[in-house]
Amino acid sequence: MTAGSGADGPPAVLDHLVFATPDLSATVAEVAALTGVRPVPGGSHPGRGTRNHLLGLGGGAYLEIIGPDPEQPAPDRPRWFGIDALTGPRLVTWAVRVTGIADRVAAARARGHDPGAAVAMSRRTPDGGRLAWQLTPPGTGDGSAPFLLDWGATPHPSAGLPVLPLVALRAVHPDPAAARAAWAALGVRWPGELTTGPDVRLTAVVEGRYGRVAFGRGAVPV
C-alpha cells in the first residue's frame, strides 16, 4: 500500500501499524481468539523494555502488537508508544518504510516538521537471526504522523507471517489540515479515510477467519 509520492526518493509504503498494550500475553490471546490466527512471536527490544508479536496485513505490511517484556528489567526511560500509561490495548501509530532515512528527515525538517533524528535498533528473531534497522523516534506526537523506518539490507519481518488482509484504515483528528501538513512534510499520505473528531483515533479493520475485526481502542468484531 503506497503511502507517499516518493518526492525524496523511492515511494514510501505502509510498513506496519502499532497496536500497543500494557499486557502483551493477554492481548495476543485476545487477538488470536477474535481473528482465528495467533500472532507470531517477534522478539525483544533490549534496553527498551518491550517485546512484540506480529501478524501480516498483506502487501508487505504487518501489525505489530507490542507491550512490556517481563523478561527485561524496567527500562530507565519511558517505554515507547506511551505503553506505561495505557490501561488497555490501542492502535497508537503507524510506520512508513523508506530508503535514505537521513535525507527524509532533513527534507521533513526543511518543510517544518521534525520527526526526530534516526536511531539504530536491532533484535534477535526466534530462530536466532538478527534484524537491524533505523527509525525516527515513534510516539513523540499524537500518533497521527507516522514514524519513518529504514530496514536497509535486513529481510523484512513481514515475510512468512500469517496474513489477515487489511480492508480499511480510518483516522479521526481534531485538525485534519494539521495532520495533512505533517504528512506532506514527511512526503507521505495516510492510506485511508480521514475525518474530523474531538481527539486522535486510528482504526484498522482486518479480515479474520471469523469475520472482520477492528483494531482501535481495543480489538472488536465488526
Automatic annotation (TrEMBL):
Pfam families: Glyoxalase_3. It comes from Streptomyces endophytica. This is VOC family protein. It comes from the Bacteria. Residues 14-186 form the Glyoxalase-like domain.
